[in-house]
Amino acid sequence: MFADRWKQILNLRGDDVALWHPGGALSFRALETAARALPSKICGRLGRHYLAQGDGPEITTALLAGFLTGRPVQLVEKDRSRRVPACCVPRNAALVKQTVGSSGVRRCQFFTFAQVAADVDRLHDAMGLNSCDVALAPLSVAHSFGLTTTVLQTLLNGLPTHWLPTPFPCGMTEALGQHERVFLPGVPAMWKAWLLSGLDLSRVKLAVSAGSPLTLELEAKVRETFHLKLHNLYGTSETGAISYDTGNEPRTEAGDLGTLLPGVQAAVENGRLVVASDAVGLGYDTVQPGELFSLGRHRTWDRITLRGNALTYDACEGPGINVASRKLSPAVIAEKIRTATGVRHVRIHGQPSRDAERVQDVVACLGVTPEQLTCEFKSKACAALAPWEVPRHWRIENPGFAASEAERSGGYEGMALA
């Protein structure tokens, strides 16, 4: 399936640039040469596989190597450690993602090549990417949004990617100066930063936002400053893209997620959105009670109002924390703090941020005394945390009271009790 598509791309564009990066550029043929020379890895759960971790070129090469050989590819964010799947990978799995998502649980997700391709092609058609010359990738291509809108479009549909290690204006300006008709995907926090920087986006033909709610204010400012319609895209890592705002005028409702993409079906069960499509993955490596993620269907954590094919976002019920579109695990943060400090009671949760594009702040509730909660203690507690995991709010909490509250609410979300 992939071999025929790739052969056609090579025949049409083999010597053209497929991937720009700060160190130079790679043609489609050069990518294949690098992929065929890449050694595979082996582990008991994955067998022979390729690890896609690092910068844009490394991830793209590993993906191509896996697709060409039929071996699974495990995708890992550059700044995160690899998780060995808790179960044997399904024999037909082509892609293994490891993500936290709205569930707040760090685990692996499995996808066949057909499921990956269905998502990539659906987005390519819906967004009209054949009218763009290049996809600019200043966001993580190991994240589902960046992956599907950039390097997978390169490998499956021949749309070149210009990868950037950061979304900072200097590199963006240089990259934009090399291309006409640019497709620019970004998360709301990036779009806000580009606004504040005064970046020239006159060469952007298509602007898309995903990863967290897009406010009407930000959308309006992008229109006013850049003369661009910022299209809202909604999806999950389990399902791929779900809905898209195809209109050319700014939205009038903040929760407007556009309409269902062709081939995607949805229903609301007990307030939460259930999605069915050919892009829904095979499942998780570990399953929690009450979850639905198999046989082409997935129950999301999002409360959605569905009117015909139109979706309106109401809220997310998942315990995962969304910090500027990064999904964080409360349990992982709690364990890191407990290990660093020796404090037995650590409870982590998110709360709405004053900065709408940041989405949530991390809150740490600790079983300590006021005298213990010093600047030195906080510094020690955060030593092993990534910058985006650092709590912005610290609270003292009685462990017994917190446990009683957790029992009444049905669980210990984000709680680490020894």
How is this structure best described in words?
By secondary structure, the chain is an alpha/beta fold. The chain has two domains: 315 residues, Rossmann fold, CATH 3.40.50.12780; 97 residues, 2-Layer Sandwich (GMP Synthetase, Chain A, domain 3). Helices cover 29% and strands 30% of the residues. Strands 1, 2, 8, 9, 10, 11, 12, 13, 14, 15, 16, 18, 19 and 20 form a 14-stranded mixed sheet that branches. Strand 1 and strand 2 form a beta hairpin. The C terminus is likely disordered.
How would the blueprint of this fold be written?
Elements: H1 2-13, E1 17-21, E2 24-27, H2 28-37, E3 41-43, E4 47-52, H3 56-69, E5 73-75, E6 95-99, E7 107-111, H4 113-127, E8 134-137, H5 144-149, H6 151-157, E9 161-163, H7 169-176, E10 182-186, H8 188-197, E11 204-209, H9 216-226, E12 230-236, E13 240-244, E14 256-260, E15 265-269, E16 272-276, E17 283-284, E18 293-294, E19 297-307, E20 310-316, E21 321-323, E22 326-328, H10 330-341, E23 345-352, E24 360-366, H11 375-381, E25 393-396, H12 399-409, E26 415-417
Parallel strand pairs: 1-9, 4-5, 5-6, 8-9, 8-10, 10-11, 11-12, 24-25
Antiparallel strand pairs: 1-2, 3-4, 6-7, 7-17, 12-13, 13-14, 14-20, 15-16, 16-19, 18-19, 19-20, 21-22, 23-24, 23-26
Helix pairs in contact: 2-3, 4-6, 8-9
